[in-house]
Amino acid sequence: MAEFHETSPNAPASEKLLNWVDNRFPASKLFKEHMSEYYAPKNFNIFYIFGSLSLLVLVIQIVTGIFLVMHYKPDAALAFASVEYIMRDVPWGWLIRYMHSTGASAFFVVVYLHMFRGLIYGSYRKPRELIWLFGCGIFLALMAEAFMGYLLPWGQMSYWGAQVIVNLFSAIPFIGPDLALLIRGDFVVGDATLNRFFSFHVIAVPLVLLGLVVAHIIALHEVGSNNPDGVEIKATKDAQGRPLDGIPFHPYYTVHDIFAVSIFLMVFTAIVFFAPEMGGYFLEYNNFIPADPFKTPLHIAPVWYFTPFYSMLRAVTNEMMYALIACVLVGAYLAVAKVKMAAVFKGAVAVVALGVVAMMLSIDAKFWGVVAMGGGVVILFFLPWLDNSAVKSIRYRPDWHKYMYAIFVIDFLVLGYLGMLPPSDIGGRVSQLGTLFYFGFFLLMPWWSRIGTPKAVPDRVTFTAH
Question: Average of pLDDT values for 317-343?
C-alpha cells in the first residue's frame, strides 16, 4: 500500500487539495513525467508545433461534434433538413457546424505538415518506429472518420461520393460484392448506410482514434523526441542524469505552443467567419443540394484531402497495367541479377513475380486502382524499414536528397490538384507519372537513400539562442 503524505496544517487550501488528490491519483507525478521533467531537445523549430495543433483540432472536433449530434437526425429522409435546422434555427448552430467542417480540413493540414516533418527529419527511424506506426494508424483512422462524416449531411456530393467509394469495394475479387453490400447495409446507398456511418463516425472510430493518440504520446515520451539534427540528446547527460541538450517541455515549449495555438486560432476563426466554404474546397457547393439518387452531379470528386489518393485510383487504367507489369518484371530481374542471395530465393522471387503478373493480367484494372489508392497510405507504415540512409535528418544527407523530397511534395500536391478536376487525357497521363513516382519514391528508397556521401553529424545539437 502506498504511503500517504501529509501537508502542514498551515498550508494553503490549494496545496492541501493537490496533496489529497496525489495520495489517491498520481496527478503531480504524471505532470512531472510528461511536462515539467520531460526533457525535449532545445533546437526545436517551427515544424514541431503541428503535433500540439493536431491535438487542439481533435478537441475542437470532439466538442463541436457533441453539440451537432444533439440536433442531427441520422435518417435519410431527415438528415439534410436537420443540418439546415442546425444552420438556420439552432442558436449558434451555424458556428458549431462551420467550426466542425473547417476543423476537418484543418486537421488534415496540420497532420500532413506533422508527417512531413517526420519524413524530412527521420522521426520514424530507430528507436521511434512504433511512434511512426501509431501515427500512421491515426492517419488511417482520421481518413475513415472524415469519409464517414462526409456522408452525414446527405447532400449531393455526400450521397454520390459515398456511392462511388463504396462501389469500389465490389471490384475486390470473390468477396467484393458481399463486402460492398455489408458496408452499405442495403443494395444501394440509403438509410441503412447513413445509420452505419453515423454509428462509426460518432462512436467506434473516435474511440480507436483516441486510443491511438494516447499510445502515440506514450511511445513518444518513452523514447524521447527527435530533433532537426537527428541527434539523440539522451547520449550526453549531466551529473543529475538530465540531457545537456534538453530543456523541460514545461514551461519552455508550452509557451511556444500557446503562441502557435494563438496564431492558428486567428487563422481558423478568420476562415470560419469569412470563408467557411473556402471556395468550395472545404464545403462543396453541390453538398448544399439535398441528395437525389436520380440526378448525378456532372463531376464527382472527394474533398481535397483525399484527392491525391483518388488520383492514384484513377491513374490505374488498362494501359497503365502494362507499365506496372513492366515495373514488376524489371524489379524481379534486378533482384535476381544484382542482389546476392541463394539460388532457391532467386527462384522464389521469379515465381512470385510471375504469379503477380498473372494476377495483374487476369484481374480488372479497377481492382488494382483500389489497391493503388489503399497502398498509397499503407506503404507509409513500412517507411522505417525502407530508409537505409546513414543519417536521419535531411540536414546531413547529400544535397540531392533535398531535391528528391521537394519533388515528392510537388508530386503529392499535383496529384491532389488533378484529383479535384474532371478526368482528361493530359491529366490522366500526369497522374500516372505522379503515381509511379510516388510509389517509386518509397519502393526504391532502400537503394537511393544509400547513394551519396552524407555530411558529418555533430555529437551535440546545433542551437542558437533566440
Answer: 83
